[in-house]
Amino acid sequence: xxxxxxxxxxxxxxxxxxxxxxxxxxxxxxxxxxxxxxxxxxxxxxxxxxxxxxxxxxxxxxxxxxxxxxxxxxxxxxxxxxxxxxxxxxxxxxxxxxxxxxxxxxxxxxxxxxxxxxxxxxxxxxxxxxxxxxxxxxxxxxxxxxxxxxxxxxxxxxxxxxxxxxxxxxxxxxxxxxxxxxxxxxxxxxxxxxxxxxxxxxxxxxxxxxxxxxxxxxxxxxxxxxxxxxxxxxxxxxxxxxxxxx
Amino acid sequence: xxxxxxxxxxxxxxxxxxxxxxxxxxxxxxxxxxxxxxxxxxxxxxxxxxxxxxxxxxxxxxxxxxxxxxxxxxxxxxxxxxxxxxxxxxxxxxxxxxxxxxxxxxxxxxxxxxxxxxxxxxxxxxxxxxxxxxxxxxxxxxxxxxxxxxxxxxxxxxxxxxxxxxxxxxxxxxxxxxxxxxxxxxxxxxxxxxxxxxxxxxxxxxxxxxxxxxxxxxxxxxxxxxxxxxxxxxxxxxxxxxxxxxxxxxxxxxxxxxxxxxxxxxxxxxxxxx
Lengths: 246, 274
Hints:
heterodimer; A: mainly alpha; Arc Repressor Mutant, subunit A; two-stranded antiparallel ribbon; 69% helix; elongated; B: Beta-Lactamase
């Protein structure tokens, strides 16, 4: 059976040009994430090296380095000869769940947490200063969606949307773009289908946060947002550490 | 002393209202064309499809061409299930060097799904049946900037089919009004253009920033009572306590606050801007 063709939406998401300075590990991470998310399917053939490198905006040398790393991780298999090329090998379930965490060092996880806290904290503070009644209604609506979301994808989306809306309520396009970038990077980590992916703690934090924004209490809003991010980061660090004990 | 600045304020409000009104007129043409499409489909007893919307594109391109440098994007957005071949649909175009189509993820199952039905520019025309000037708000989907969206409802035989609209960058509106505001404002009585909801659009003072919500009388604020800010949430929006409050005519519910107050002392801690 022929491997499925890449749809334009997936091609655009996966193969959008990387920022300047995009390196082999960035390519590795993006492709690994795509495989783990099922955007690239088991047995699917990757575009030819030169084409894929061109789409990602990296050199073929960099791409080969990334493919070698993916091969080591068992996520890509390269076959030679007629009908050859690089093929996706989807990991089994247990590996797939842990993979995004394994890809990050503890220091990187810490750093992501610090970055998130800076953005979410300032966004919360400014939102508390600048929110109108209509904005609060929108925030509550998204908080409610998260509470009602059963599937992890729905939770990830609702959670991301809520945080992006808070940054938008801060009236800052830049903070909003930062939240969007952060969530596209870490959204799957936050809603990793492992222990602790319970919606209740996040929902409680969000309610308190929206209360503080509605009450126009910037300092409290900031504190709650920072605590919320710290709790999530802490949970991820624990999980990451536990991977070594198995 | 008051007559000339007051008329200057009126002139400023009228000019910005007219500029946005012209975009609204163009958008209304798109909306009417879309109503005609829906009506024709209904008369022919066939469902409306995505491909039908191609007929609107010359008009959308015309909106962008006519308001080049002011309208950053334009198009139509469909109510859920208005089309036979898409549960949700956006046919939106942005103008930059050329013209491009906005790509958004409309699959509710996807992690990047964009649910536009919760936005002010969609919801308000759907609810009221009236044109809407939404914003300023952070448009994180199309312009990714601080934006106004003007939108008109498209209704076919009583059924809400969607909206036609256009995006206007807040920075362009600021550019248009700032010289006038700076001429009107005084150090102790800045001139401030606010949205109907009390959101600052532009001001003659560096202490009043766009995006801030203006509420009359901030107790204990450096400027004392009668200046702006939060957290006093009482009495807004009515412009109470603001001399020289003017409300724009027509569908644009913006207000100009401040304006002709006490003239500054000559050489005193002066105008916010020259």
